[in-house]
Design goal:
The chain is mainly α. It is built from 11 helices and no strands. The longest helix is centred in the last third of the chain and has 36 residues. Its main location: membrane.
Length: 294
């Protein structure tokens, strides 16, 4: 009886702690949405930001956030896939593999501001890319690569060994087994990890302040020259993202309606991050059911 009472007490304490955490998180989300949603409109989502006058929008910053996200994923997904496949399928236990895993652990624990300063010294100054989308994308790749690599590795390791044995038994090579058997089986977990990383990239600010810049020049939608600083597809132009815009509005406060712009921008950012997080789980479940049915 005494053990049962202790078990019930411990269970009640755990449920209470979990409830408090959920309540805090829900209250923060509701607070941001309640403050920001009334200020969101089509003109706010598509309009240009203003430096000194009221009534500015976040159109360019929102576009920059998505464009930077795409460029970052183009760079980081192949790298994380290669590293994850190597660690899960080919790496043998030894000092080299242990050193690689230690480096991944160290990189994953670095604060984003440190990664931003590293990106500034290497990509902005040494590589002479300047404050640009490519500098921000490379810095975010350094920031997210450890997490994405571990996600790919874990997803591949969760594939049962009999799947690999079946592929090898059919006479196909080890590489073909990985590409045609193991990776498709691990795809739901890999896709879920990529989408979750996308939400992290979309909401990042500290690393981009020192790499992508703090200004959002007007874009010429008739100019598709990738080297032009006014082209919407240029990776060599400055690109203030939505998260950086929120920080800048709150830190400088040079516009009369800074509070309104900040609240609306924060609500938009939160909504997209929630979409990424909930969408990742739904997409992962959908792919798992589809592959299982097939």
């Amino acid at each position: 009886m005494h053990a049962k009472k202790l078990d019930k007490l411990a269970t009640a304490v755990l449920y209470t702690i979990a409830g408090i955490i959920v309540a805090i998180l829900a209250s923060l989300i509701l607070y941001i949405l309640v403050r920001g949603l009334p200020h969101i409109s089509w003109s706010f989502l598509t309009g240009k930001s203003s430096s000194y006058q009221a009534g500015g929008g976040i159109g360019i910053q929102l576009y920059n956030s998505f464009f930077l996200l795409v460029i970052t994923l183009i760079i980081s997904v192949p790298l994380s896939m290669g590293a994850g496949v190597f660690l899960a399928e080919y790496a043998k236990k030894g000092p080299v593999t242990n050193f690689i895993r230690t480096c991944i652990e160290i990189l994953s624990s670095l604060p984003s501001v440190v990664v931003g300063l590293f990106g500034y010294l290497i990509f902005v100054v040494q590589f002479e890319y300047g404050f640009s989308i490519i500098s921000g994308a490379l810095a975010l790749t350094v920031f997210n690569l450890p997490q994405m690599t571990r996600n790919v590795e874990d997803s591949l390791k969760h594939v049962h060994h009999t799947q690999r044995e079946a592929g090898l038994a059919l006479g196909i090579s080890r590489w073909e087994t990985v590409v045609h058997v193991v990776i498709p089986e691990a795809l739901p977990g890999i896709v879920t990890g990529v989408v979750l990383a996308s939400g992290r990239i979309f909401g990042e600010a500290a690393a981009l302040i020192y790499t992508a810049g703090q200004s959002a020049p007007a874009l010429d939608w008739s100019n598709w020259n990738i080297l032009s600083v006014t082209s919407p597809i240029s990776i060599f132009r400055q690109a203030e993202t939505l998260a950086v815009h929120i920080w800048k509005v709150n830190s400088e406060g040079t516009i009369p309606d800074a509070t309104i712009v900040s609240a609306g921008s924060a609500a938009v950012l939160l909504i997209f991050i929630l979409i990424f997080n909930f969408g990742a789980r739904k997409l992962g479940s959908y792919l798992h059911k589809k592959l299982t049915a097939a």
